Protein backbone atom coordinates (compact mmCIF):
# COMPACT_ATOMS: atom_id res chain seq x y z
CA UNK A 1 0.00 0.00 0.00
CA UNK A 2 1.39 3.37 -0.98
CA UNK A 3 0.41 6.54 0.84
CA UNK A 4 0.84 9.95 -0.72
CA UNK A 5 2.45 13.06 0.74
CA UNK A 6 0.29 15.03 3.13
CA UNK A 7 -0.17 18.78 2.76
CA UNK A 8 1.68 20.95 5.26
CA UNK A 9 -0.10 23.40 7.57
CA UNK A 10 0.94 25.15 10.75
CA UNK A 11 -1.50 23.24 12.88
CA UNK A 12 -0.23 20.70 15.40
CA UNK A 13 -2.87 18.37 14.04
CA UNK A 14 -1.31 18.73 10.58
CA UNK A 15 -1.03 15.06 10.04
CA UNK A 16 -4.32 14.01 11.56
CA UNK A 17 -5.99 14.42 8.21
CA UNK A 18 -8.34 11.54 8.88
CA UNK A 19 -9.78 13.82 11.57
CA UNK A 20 -9.65 17.22 9.91
CA UNK A 21 -10.39 16.11 6.34
CA UNK A 22 -12.29 12.84 6.39
CA UNK A 23 -13.31 13.22 2.73
CA UNK A 24 -9.77 13.64 1.38
CA UNK A 25 -7.94 11.11 -0.80
CA UNK A 26 -5.52 10.41 2.03
CA UNK A 27 -8.34 9.63 4.46
CA UNK A 28 -9.68 7.27 1.85
CA UNK A 29 -6.30 5.58 1.63
CA UNK A 30 -6.33 5.04 5.38
CA UNK A 31 -9.79 3.49 5.12
CA UNK A 32 -8.38 1.07 2.55
CA UNK A 33 -5.54 0.14 4.90
CA UNK A 34 -8.09 -0.38 7.65
CA UNK A 35 -10.17 -2.65 5.41
CA UNK A 36 -7.07 -4.67 4.54
CA UNK A 37 -6.28 -5.07 8.23
CA UNK A 38 -9.82 -6.19 8.87
CA UNK A 39 -9.47 -8.94 6.28
CA UNK A 40 -6.37 -10.18 8.06
CA UNK A 41 -7.72 -9.93 11.59
CA UNK A 42 -11.26 -11.06 11.26
CA UNK A 43 -11.57 -12.51 14.71
CA UNK A 44 -11.47 -10.46 17.88
CA UNK A 45 -8.66 -12.51 19.37
CA UNK A 46 -6.17 -11.25 16.79
CA UNK A 47 -6.61 -7.56 17.28
CA UNK A 48 -3.22 -6.34 18.55
CA UNK A 49 -1.20 -4.65 15.83
CA UNK A 50 2.29 -3.22 16.08
CA UNK A 51 3.46 -0.49 13.75
CA UNK A 52 7.20 -0.16 13.27
CA UNK A 53 9.77 0.64 10.56
CA UNK A 54 13.34 -0.23 9.65
CA UNK A 55 14.64 3.27 10.39
CA UNK A 56 13.85 6.36 12.49
CA UNK A 57 11.43 9.00 11.27
CA UNK A 58 9.76 6.99 8.53
CA UNK A 59 6.27 8.03 9.60
CA UNK A 60 5.24 5.34 12.09
CA UNK A 61 3.51 7.72 14.50
CA UNK A 62 1.84 9.66 11.69
CA UNK A 63 0.53 6.47 10.12
CA UNK A 64 -0.66 4.87 13.33
CA UNK A 65 -2.53 7.95 14.59
CA UNK A 66 -4.34 8.39 11.29
CA UNK A 67 -5.13 4.72 11.17
CA UNK A 68 -6.47 4.83 14.73
CA UNK A 69 -8.71 7.80 13.91
CA UNK A 70 -9.86 6.15 10.70
CA UNK A 71 -10.83 2.94 12.47
CA UNK A 72 -12.47 4.73 15.40
CA UNK A 73 -14.59 6.91 13.14
CA UNK A 74 -15.85 3.74 11.47
CA UNK A 75 -17.44 2.94 14.83
CA UNK A 76 -14.86 0.51 16.10
CA UNK A 77 -13.42 0.90 19.59
CA UNK A 78 -9.68 1.52 19.38
CA UNK A 79 -6.87 1.74 21.92
CA UNK A 80 -3.70 3.44 20.72
CA UNK A 81 -0.65 2.61 22.85
CA UNK A 82 2.53 4.69 22.71
CA UNK A 83 5.29 2.14 23.29
CA UNK A 84 7.99 4.41 21.94
CA UNK A 85 9.18 5.18 25.45
CA UNK A 86 12.20 7.16 24.30
CA UNK A 87 10.49 9.13 21.54
CA UNK A 88 6.86 9.37 22.56
CA UNK A 89 4.54 11.71 20.71
CA UNK A 90 0.98 10.42 20.98
CA UNK A 91 0.14 12.64 24.00
CA UNK A 92 1.12 15.72 21.97
CA UNK A 93 -0.91 14.70 18.95
CA UNK A 94 -4.06 14.31 21.04
CA UNK A 95 -3.31 17.06 23.61
CA UNK A 96 -3.61 14.70 26.56
CA UNK A 97 -1.46 14.57 29.71
CA UNK A 98 1.44 12.12 29.93
CA UNK A 99 2.21 12.05 33.63
CA UNK A 100 0.65 8.61 33.98
CA UNK A 101 1.02 6.18 31.11
CA UNK A 102 2.32 2.83 29.94
CA UNK A 103 5.65 2.98 31.79
CA UNK A 104 3.94 3.79 35.10
CA UNK A 105 1.52 0.88 34.70
CA UNK A 106 4.31 -1.54 33.78
CA UNK A 107 6.28 -0.49 36.82
CA UNK A 108 3.25 -1.19 38.96
CA UNK A 109 2.92 2.46 40.01
CA UNK A 110 -0.49 3.09 38.45
CA UNK A 111 -3.56 1.01 37.66
CA UNK A 112 -4.34 0.59 33.97
CA UNK A 113 -7.75 2.29 34.27
CA UNK A 114 -6.23 5.57 35.43
CA UNK A 115 -3.61 5.54 32.67
CA UNK A 116 -5.97 5.05 29.71
CA UNK A 117 -7.23 8.42 28.48
CA UNK A 118 -10.19 9.29 26.31
CA UNK A 119 -9.67 11.54 23.27
CA UNK A 120 -11.94 13.96 21.40
CA UNK A 121 -12.79 11.05 19.12
CA UNK A 122 -15.50 9.05 20.77
CA UNK A 123 -14.31 5.51 20.10
CA UNK A 124 -10.60 6.25 20.50
CA UNK A 125 -8.69 5.85 23.78
CA UNK A 126 -4.95 6.32 24.19
CA UNK A 127 -2.39 4.90 26.58
CA UNK A 128 0.44 7.42 26.44
CA UNK A 129 4.05 6.48 27.17
CA UNK A 130 4.10 7.85 30.74
CA UNK A 131 7.08 8.95 32.82
CA UNK A 132 10.45 8.49 31.14
CA UNK A 133 12.29 5.34 32.18
CA UNK A 134 15.85 4.09 31.89
CA UNK A 135 14.95 0.50 31.02
CA UNK A 136 12.33 0.42 28.24
CA UNK A 137 13.46 -2.95 26.88
CA UNK A 138 13.09 -4.63 30.23
CA UNK A 139 9.67 -3.08 30.81
CA UNK A 140 8.22 -3.81 27.38
CA UNK A 141 9.56 -7.36 27.42
CA UNK A 142 8.16 -8.07 30.89
CA UNK A 143 5.30 -10.32 31.90
CA UNK A 144 3.49 -7.14 32.98
CA UNK A 145 3.35 -6.07 29.32
CA UNK A 146 2.00 -9.46 28.27
CA UNK A 147 -0.65 -9.22 30.96
CA UNK A 148 -1.54 -5.66 30.02
CA UNK A 149 -2.12 -6.69 26.40
CA UNK A 150 -4.22 -9.66 27.52
CA UNK A 151 -6.31 -7.30 29.61
CA UNK A 152 -6.93 -4.62 26.98
CA UNK A 153 -7.43 -6.81 23.90
CA UNK A 154 -10.95 -8.06 24.76
CA UNK A 155 -12.10 -4.54 25.68
CA UNK A 156 -11.37 -3.08 22.23
CA UNK A 157 -12.02 -3.96 18.60
CA UNK A 158 -8.45 -3.00 17.77
CA UNK A 159 -5.31 -2.26 19.79
CA UNK A 160 -2.61 -0.36 17.88
CA UNK A 161 0.93 -0.03 19.24
CA UNK A 162 3.37 2.68 18.16
CA UNK A 163 7.01 1.67 18.61
CA UNK A 164 10.61 2.64 17.87
CA UNK A 165 12.48 1.33 14.82
CA UNK A 166 12.84 -2.44 14.65
CA UNK A 167 16.45 -2.39 13.50
CA UNK A 168 17.67 -0.36 16.45
CA UNK A 169 15.41 -1.31 19.35
CA UNK A 170 15.34 -4.60 21.11
CA UNK A 171 12.07 -3.58 22.78
CA UNK A 172 10.31 -3.52 19.41
CA UNK A 173 11.42 -7.11 18.82
CA UNK A 174 10.00 -8.08 22.20
CA UNK A 175 6.72 -6.37 21.35
CA UNK A 176 6.49 -7.84 17.86
CA UNK A 177 6.46 -11.27 19.39
CA UNK A 178 3.46 -10.41 21.56
CA UNK A 179 1.25 -8.91 18.86
CA UNK A 180 -1.15 -10.53 16.42
CA UNK A 181 0.51 -8.79 13.50
CA UNK A 182 3.05 -6.18 12.46
CA UNK A 183 2.82 -3.39 9.88
CA UNK A 184 6.06 -1.92 8.55
CA UNK A 185 6.14 1.72 7.49
CA UNK A 186 8.90 2.48 4.99
CA UNK A 187 9.79 5.75 3.30
CA UNK A 188 9.38 5.53 -0.45
CA UNK A 189 12.77 5.66 -2.11
CA UNK A 190 14.66 6.19 1.15
CA UNK A 191 14.51 2.84 2.88
CA UNK A 192 16.94 0.56 1.10
CA UNK A 193 15.85 -2.93 0.13
CA UNK A 194 18.61 -4.34 2.38
CA UNK A 195 17.12 -2.55 5.42
CA UNK A 196 13.63 -3.74 4.57
CA UNK A 197 14.82 -7.34 4.18
CA UNK A 198 16.72 -7.08 7.47
CA UNK A 199 13.57 -5.86 9.21
CA UNK A 200 11.66 -8.78 7.71
CA UNK A 201 14.33 -11.22 8.89
CA UNK A 202 14.24 -9.84 12.45
CA UNK A 203 10.45 -10.12 12.53
CA UNK A 204 10.72 -13.73 11.45
CA UNK A 205 13.28 -14.46 14.16
CA UNK A 206 10.92 -12.86 16.68
CA UNK A 207 8.14 -15.18 15.42
CA UNK A 208 6.13 -12.12 14.50
CA UNK A 209 3.56 -12.02 11.71
CA UNK A 210 4.25 -9.37 9.08
CA UNK A 211 0.81 -8.27 7.89
CA UNK A 212 1.86 -5.66 5.38
CA UNK A 213 4.00 -2.70 4.41
CA UNK A 214 2.90 0.92 4.06
CA UNK A 215 5.08 2.85 1.61
CA UNK A 216 5.06 6.39 2.89
CA UNK A 217 5.56 8.83 0.03
CA UNK A 218 6.68 12.04 1.73
N1 LIG B 1 3.10 11.20 4.33
C1 LIG B 1 3.67 12.25 4.95
N2 LIG B 1 3.58 13.49 4.40
C2 LIG B 1 4.17 14.57 4.99
N3 LIG B 1 4.85 14.53 6.15
C3 LIG B 1 4.98 13.33 6.76
C4 LIG B 1 4.40 12.13 6.19
N4 LIG B 1 4.71 11.09 7.02
C5 LIG B 1 5.44 11.61 8.03
N5 LIG B 1 5.60 12.95 7.89
C6 LIG B 1 6.36 13.85 8.82
O1 LIG B 1 7.65 13.31 9.01
C7 LIG B 1 8.09 13.46 10.36
C8 LIG B 1 8.39 12.10 10.98
O2 LIG B 1 7.19 11.36 11.07
P1 LIG B 1 6.82 10.49 12.33
O3 LIG B 1 7.07 11.20 13.61
O4 LIG B 1 5.46 9.95 12.10
O5 LIG B 1 7.91 9.33 12.16
P2 LIG B 1 8.28 8.17 13.15
O6 LIG B 1 8.66 6.99 12.30
O7 LIG B 1 7.21 7.96 14.14
O8 LIG B 1 9.57 8.76 13.87
P3 LIG B 1 10.35 8.15 15.14
O9 LIG B 1 11.22 7.04 14.60
O10 LIG B 1 11.14 9.31 15.64
O11 LIG B 1 9.32 7.65 16.10
C9 LIG B 1 6.98 14.20 11.08
O12 LIG B 1 7.27 15.57 11.09
C10 LIG B 1 5.76 13.93 10.22
O13 LIG B 1 4.83 14.96 10.34
MG1 LIG C 1 7.30 7.92 16.21
Total number of beta strands = 8
The number of domains is 1
> What's the architecture in CATH terms?
3-Layer(aba) Sandwich
Q: How is the largest sheet built, in terms of strand order? A: 1-8-7-2-6-3-5-4
Helix fraction, binned, reads: 25-40%
Largest sheet: 8 strands, mixed
Instruction: Write down the secondary-structure element order.
Output: EHHEHEHHHEEHHEHEHE
Q: Treating each run of at least 4 consecutive H or I residues as one helix, how many helices?
A: 10
Strand content: 15-25%
Give a written overview of the molecule.
- By secondary structure, the protein is of the alpha/beta class.
- It has one domain: Rossmann fold.
- It is 38% helix and 17% strand.
- It contains ten helices and eight strands.
- It has helices at residues 17-20, 25-40, 60-72, 90-93, 102-106, 112-115, 136-140, 143-152, 170-178, 193-205, and strands spanning 2-3, 48-52, 78-82, 116-118, 124-127, 158-162, 181-187, 210-216.
- Strands 1-8-7-2-6-3-5-4 form an eight-stranded mixed β-sheet, sandwiched between helices.
- Helix 2 crosses helix 3.
- The radius of gyration is 16 Å and the shape is globular.
- Mean pLDDT is 88; it is low at 7-14.
- Bound molecules: adenosine-5'-triphosphate (ATP) and magnesium ion.
- The site of adenosine-5'-triphosphate has 17 residues, from helix 3.
Amino acid sequence: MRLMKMPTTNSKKTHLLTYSEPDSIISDQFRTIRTNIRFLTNDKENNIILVTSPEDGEGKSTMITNLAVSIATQKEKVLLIDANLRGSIIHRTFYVPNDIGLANVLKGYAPLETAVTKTDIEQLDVLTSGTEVANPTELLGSANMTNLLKEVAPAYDMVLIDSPTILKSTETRELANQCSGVILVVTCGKTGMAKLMEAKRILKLAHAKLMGVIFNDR
